Amino acid sequence: MSTSTPIDTAAPADVPLREAFWYWFKLGFISFGGPAGQIALMHADLVDKRRWISERRFLHALNFCMLLPGPEATQLAVYIGWLMHRTRGGIMAGALFVLPSLFLLIALGWVYLTFGNQPVVAGILYGIKPAVVAIVLAAAFRIGSRTLKNNWLRGIAVLAFAAIALLHLPFPLIVLVAGLTGWIGGRVRPELFRLGGSHAASATAHAPALIDDTTPTPAHAHFSPARLALTGGIGIGLAAITWTAIALLAGIDSTLAQLGWFFTKAAMLTFGGAYAVLPYVYQGAVEHYQWLTAVQMIDGLALGETTPGPLIMIVAFVGFVGGWTKEIFGAQHLLAAGVIGAFVATWFTFLPSFVFILAGGPLVESTRRQHPADRATDGNFSGRGRRHHQPRGLFCRPRIPLAGRISTVGLDRDGHHAGCLHRPAALQNRPDQADRRLCVCGPHGIFLRLIKMHLENPIS
């Protein structure tokens, strides 16, 4: 006789800001695996485990974050933080999501420029890479199984994958076609283009959440044109004031001013994820401004893929190396120059994402009951979701001008990484254990790396 686990029918208590702080702080250190892994971790924690937000509200927020330029996982963290604790909650969630990877890349950048390619650092990365692959695979299965619930949505996902991988169609075109398909399908067959189901149906399988399907929109999330203009104006003002101060203090043609202007433009071009903007970053950082060499850019990509946080955090490495190599504070203050360069690049890259969410969040919430709009974003989720299910950069080379010289960041052909790829289903069932698995795979990678170095260069 089968037994079912009883479902807690009581909604969770209000979450204090301090509790949310420590959650976002932890997430910033374990958010490996790119956007797919990061979104899966947030879904497992916020929807399934803590029940801070319902699945439908989570997916509604994610759908709109995917339409914006910039890193969608970061924007999703800002959105949920804002929805729960107003503007300060959104800023806190986004900052804690980004800052750990910023500090880690600064530290790794210092080691890289000071000591070069050290066996210990290379070994840690050697072990973590396959674990990241496993996290992405588990996340792809988890998100796909929850969202692609019928053959129509699966068909959109397959076609989107073919359009990206085989036809190399422009990503904005794929988003537009997927969204249009969802909008038309929602009007013709609305029962097929629905993610998450109704509240009544989902209540039989899921306990109520703090922010549930039927929870009224909080007062701070009501749309107001005046608030939209005010928040947008503050964001533009912050960017303008910061850049003007840098230009006045360091010069309009200084490296810091160039970093700020360049990464502001880059932030507006990141439709399709970090790899979509890499050719632009490469061309500007390596060829035009010459902040770093092509080899350093590729090494920075490897570091960015094996640290927590958004993949676009490669900009912090570019800023660090640029400030260091250009000696913006003189030859005696290289570390300070690198740190300031990393902060400037990160500030101007991520500021637009915060402004988009804090200014546009109320508008997004106002569309939650507009079913045709929901269907359009459901179709868009299927189209974009397939991109996340393909762990780009881990299995294939980024299409940038150095394609012939980039080694694959991911699995080695000699099979040394098989040990860290065991049982991705375990990660699918327990995505919150990703940090522990990565801690195990790091020392494992050092050990294997040392053995490989010894075999390739035996001591005579």
Q: How would you sum up this structure, described in words?
A:
The structure is a single chain. This protein is mainly alpha-helical. The chain has one domain (17-194, 223-368). 68% of the residues lie in helices and 0% in strands. It has 17 helices and no strands. The protein has helices spanning 17-30, 34-49, 55-67, 72-115, 119-147, 151-165, 171-188, 199-202, 225-250, 255-267, 274-288, 294-305, 314-325, 334-366, 371-389, 424-429, 434-456. Helix 10 packs parallel to helix 14. The radius of gyration is 22 Å and the shape is globular.
Keywords:
460 residues; mainly alpha; 17 helices; 68% helix; globular
The count of β-strands is 0
What is the count of structural domains? 1
Structural class call reads mainly alpha
The unreliable regions are 197-204, 385-429
Mean pLDDT over the residues: 77
Please work out how many helical segments DSSP would assign: 17
- What percent strand? under 5%
Taking all Cα atoms into account, the compactness measure Rg is: 22 Å
The run of helices and strands is: HHHHHHHHHHHHHHHHH
Largest sheet: none
Task: Calculate the terminal CA-CA distance, rounded to whole Å.
Answer: 68 Å
Percent helix, as a range, is 55-70%
| Shape call | globular
